[in-house]
Amino acid sequence: MFGYDGSKWQELELEERGGYLEVRMNGTEGYFCIAKENDYTVIYVSAACVAILALIVVISTGRRRRKKKK
Questions:
Q1: 3-state DSSP helix/strand/coil % of the chain, to nearest 5
Q2: Rounded mean pLDDT of 31-43?
Q3: Euclidean distance between CA atoms 1 and 22, whole angstroms
Q4: Residue 25 pLDDT > 80
Q5: Quick one: pLDDT at residue 28?
Q6: Rounded to an integer, what distance in angstroms lies between the CA atom of residue 21 and that of residue 38?
Q7: pLDDT score at 24
Q8: Do residues 2 and 33 touch, judged by C-beta distance below 8 A?
Q9: To which H or E segment does residue 31 belong?
């Protein structure tokens, strides 16, 4: 979470309280930005699994064709 202090955005310390986020602020009003961090791990693992499966299919069909030719 980021807070605007009048001249720039600064990352704030926060505490998770169930479904809420708690931050400390000066005064009674403020501007805040909640920025989600992108985690591409699932995408990378999925892409690797698809590539491995495609490689297995290509190798297995190539072996079958060689056996039929002999």
A1: 40, 25, 35
A2: 82
A3: 10
A4: yes
A5: 85
A6: 19
A7: 85
A8: yes
A9: strand 31-33
- Of the candidates 28, 26, 23, 29, the one whose C-alpha atom is nearest the C-alpha of residue 11 is 23
Instruction: Decide: 1 and 21 in contact? Cβ < 8 Å.
Output: yes
Structure tokens at 27: 């005064």
Strand duo 14-17 + 20-23: pairing: antiparallel
The amino acid sitting at 39 is: D
Task: Give the list of residues 6+ apart from residue 25 with CB closer than 8 angstroms, or none.
Answer: 3
Residues in the chain: 70
Tell me the two tokens of residue 67. Answer: 């056996």
pLDDT recorded at residue 55: 93
Contacts of residue 34, Cβ cutoff 8 Å, sequence gap at least 6: 1, 2, 21
**pTM assigned to the model:** 0.43
